Sequence to fold (924 residues):
Amino acid sequence: MDTSYLIILALLLGALAATVPVFIVLFFVGLAGLGYFIGIDPMIVIEVLYRSMDKFALIVVLFFVLCGNIMTTGSIVEKLIKTANVLVGSLPGGLAMAGILACGFFGAISGSTVATVVAIGGFMIPALIRHRYPEQFSIGVMTTAPILGVVIPPSIAMILYAMVTNVSLEAFFLTGFMPGLLIMAAMSLYAYFYCRRLPDIDLAPKPSPAEVFKTLKDSFWALMLPVIIFGGIYSGLFTANEAAVVACFYAFFVEIVIHRDMKLTQVKKVVVSSAVTSSTLLIIVAGASVFGEYLTFEQIPGQITNAVVSNIHSQWIFLLAVGIILLLIGMFMDIISATIILTPILYPMLSRFGIDPMHFGLLMTVNLGIGYATPPLGVSLYIAGTVANRNILYVTKAVAPFLLIQLGVLLVLTFWPDFVLFLPRWLYGYGG
Amino acid sequence: MKRAFRFLDRLLGHVEDWSLFTAVMMALFAAMTNIILRKTTDISLYWSDEVVRKVIFFTTFMGASAAIRRRALIRIDAVPQLLPIFHKPLTVLSHVAVLVFAGIMIWLGLGMTILVYDDPFARTSTLQIPEWYFYSLLPLVGFMMFIRTCMQIVEDWQDWRSPTSDEEGA
Amino acid sequence: QSDPTAAWQPSFDPSKAEHTYILSNISHPAIEGVGVGYRIRDKVWERSNGRLYVDFRPLAQLGGERDVISKLRMGAVHGMLSSSVAAANVADKLGIVNLPYVVDTFEKLDKFIQDEELFEEFRQSPRRQGVIAVDITSYGTYGWATTKPVRSLEDARGVNFRIAEAPVNIDIYRAWGNRFTVMPWPDVPQALQTGVIDGLDHTPTVSNITGKFDVAKYFTEVNYAQGLFIHLINERWLNRLPADLREILLDVIAEESAKSRELARIQHEEQIAAAKAKGVEFIPLSAADRQRLIELAEPVYKTWGERIGADYLQRVRDSLEK
Ligand code: NA
Ligand code: NA
Fold:
């Protein structure tokens, strides 16, 4: 291996560990590689920063972040939780299932996990404890269920994967529904059997049909949001990119005009804070583009591919090995950075192993999504810890059974591509 | 000194907040109008995509300056979380890295802006806006990031010196 | 789902080359006007006895066309087979080939390239940017691939065309009074599938090879321009190359580009036949409609004539109409 590669790698890992902002690390390493090791005019990095953001597809990041913030500021989130509760709340473990279902509802509108933890977990953890669910169980379920935010479309991680690989975003989104449902089903089953043995838990009385109807009516406008997003995309009214724009207008309209739970004066604050949040995500894409420029000029992805291909000969071993590596990376890195850095390296290998790029993209999303709740650096662990006022060790023990469930689902998804690709094939005519 | 700082903070805050708000709303309305017109009339706003793309570029870099103020830039803080003894030295190192980055943005960004300014063909493809307008945002943001980071260094410095806050205060 | 560049790996080990020429293109090497990059690579390697390696990177590996143009000017990329649409962003004069019914047939293209005086002026035009245009390859003749039949200009009014990001094309479509959307190439498949656009300004070769005819099953033979790749080289890099290698490179480019233009003409016919066999309907444009398009484009000839040089435009038109 070339010594310059080792220097670059050491610089990359060292600076990341030293808490330098991720985008600056990527920028420095790319600049060093391009300017020093290849000898290209360093001004090229400015060109790369500019062009990397000159992309229409990135509109979704900004506007899905905004849409999520509008809903949390207003009352859409609250209504989604109420709906979930009235539907499944009276079963054994019902409130926990309602929490999982609410994460699913919210996931169908929001693109990120952190937003889901804050919006649903912040409300549900205290509620579960109040209804005498075991505290560790309550924290565990509400820290891990928000993975649905990135698995169920829209999903920022999936958007970036589609952008890097050029797979059709509309079709790729469809891969997320079935795995999302599987995760919800597996977690709900666990909650059901776990809670059935516990007599102390307050069970909600079975709601009357009138109550169900009233709740559904009350949250009608909130529930229409995913319908509008996906109905619009798959009927050809607008593209997946434009869906984010429509979703924002709709959310503003519902919160300001119908629910009247948002004041016009709040609009500016929501817009600005969303712009800043989306900037912290997109600037990593810009930094990664500088680093990617270096990788491209040196043809490093090709070299890594050749090395991997000459050592691994089976598709299953490849998927398993990459899965484990991704889990380890996910323990330390957030899903956006990891997707943007790793996709260009992993993508060229897929065709050599006969792996479908959409299947792989979904596996990568679920895998890195699990990383949100893994120690030492799961963002969700820390948020949940703050909400419940518990330390990281306690939260880690709490999430363990649920992480095992999600890893089991990941294993199923890995070796059952037809399950993942069923919807894009059926609804979109995807040929993969 | 303190008042000058507070003034500068508020000035930069106003520039960041209002420009971000205006830009995002512009993109939102341009894109929505395009979707509606395309479905209901024969008119297509062929320039709306370009507006959106430029807004994405603008908000990303302008937002990065605002993110410094809010300490929101994404970083991997495993080491200080696990080994609190490294907290202070790494904070210093991280600030220095941002300052160096800001310096590079100013230096290379200005160079590139001048290069693009000299090229009469460097115009956006749809609206024919001279592209050096956009390139000049990069050295400007570099400058703003530099100032923001200096302010944070002073803030951290005062925090560390005051006896009320030490490690467990965080 | 296979890697399209895998079939084009070099049969030699390029790591010992003294010089490397990084050549970029956005499109698929199955198109003759693109595949020429690999043929240039192999012939230059042979003639230079392994001293000069042409590192050809098709399929937008080095970025979109506007990115690569900047990198070309900075010397980070040394050469580029730039689509004629994008090349107009380097120098106005290069945009002459995009004007409707100027260089609209394979014959006129050959005639233009063989006219030493006119073509030399074209080649030198981007020099202010540190770039020279050395040669041209083709990917066919432009028309409209649409999801519903367009048999007349009136039919065309009901279509939302996707056009490339180039000022000259925007001006042409505005003058023609057609609806259009400026859209990056990677967004086209989903936009076509979902009906955001229902027409495509492109050539039969590209429409067929990239699968656009699976959705757009009609092609109106507007034949208003040739789809071209202009071979651009960073002049500073070229001048630093040893004189003997420079001569080999330029000779090979000229020889292989001429061959590839001939291959492109054959490919154009073959791809149309293949598309027809799949059920794509090809619709000729009537002479009256063609005349109408020329008249409507009058303001474009005027404004772009000023930027290209009215005299040069006139000389090219006269010479090619003869
Ligand atoms: Na989601
Ligand atoms: Na983690």
Chain A has 23 helices and no strands. Chain A has a mean pLDDT of 89.
